[in-house]
Amino acid sequence: GMHETQRVAIALQHIALCEWGLGRPTAAVPRLQRALSLMTPQPYPDLYLATVYTSALAHYAAGRFDDSLRLHGQALDLATKLQIDRARGRSYYGMGVAYYAIGDRDLSVRFLRSALEILTPDVDARGRVAALRALAVIEHEMAEFTQASAHNSEALRLATPPSARSRILLRLAADYYAQGKSADAFGMLDPLAAAAPNGDALVQALARAQRAKMYRAAGDLVAARRDAELAISALRSFEAVTDEFDARVEVGVLRHLDPAL
Predict the structure, then answer these.
(1) Which DSSP state fits 22?
(2) Helices (H) and strands (E) in the chain — how many of each?
(3) Under a CB-based contact definition with an 8 Å cutoff, are residues 89 and 123 in contact?
(4) b/e sequence 228-251, b meaning 16+ C-beta within 10 Å
(5) How confident is the model at residue 64 (pLDDT cuts 50, 70, 90)?
(6) 101 Cβ partners below 8 Å, 6+ apart?
(7) Could you tell me if 164 and 201 are in contact, meaning their C-beta atoms sit under 8 angstroms apart?
């Protein structure tokens, strides 16, 4: 009967999330589509909307931004009709992120701001943190560093998982540094670079890579080189290709500045 179909749909979702967790969002997409085809908005609209949202994010992760926007739009229509605020806010967030990926910053900012209006800390703290962090990325790129640091600071106050908190600190350090507050930036990066926060060696490597550039700007080329070299070996083990390349470029810049290094 109907309950059996719902159970199959939920099982498909779990399998899809496992695929996605293993780094295969493209394999997750058809399973989520099948799950959706077995479901109807009633009698469990929350469950249905959550599945549409997950499917939209999986399409986004697989690089299928148009499909992601279409699904978020469907969820938004239904959530608006049923007056389910959390789902409305999450749809706005998803659309904001998708428009950013497509390259439309203006629309992205508009949707992320709409998400923040709805996703108050009591409605959905995690969703609010995600929207604040996404908006801060765009603001930093547009050199609106004061706004970026304000949004990252709020995200830091609301975020509970240690991994999320340490990644927000990385962004906040960049915001502060861009505003000329280098002492604050060093103060945030030093603990992350000194010891892997909660065993997160990737965050430690990213902190070292970021701090290397700050040391170089401060004229401490030896410390910069040490940070960059340590970052490279860790980033290689994580297959963080772009970050590793970035750190290698930094070492090249340092060698150019002082061939004796």
Answers:
(1) T
(2) 13, 0
(3) yes
(4) bbbbbebbeeeebeebbebbbebb
(5) very high
(6) 60, 65
(7) no
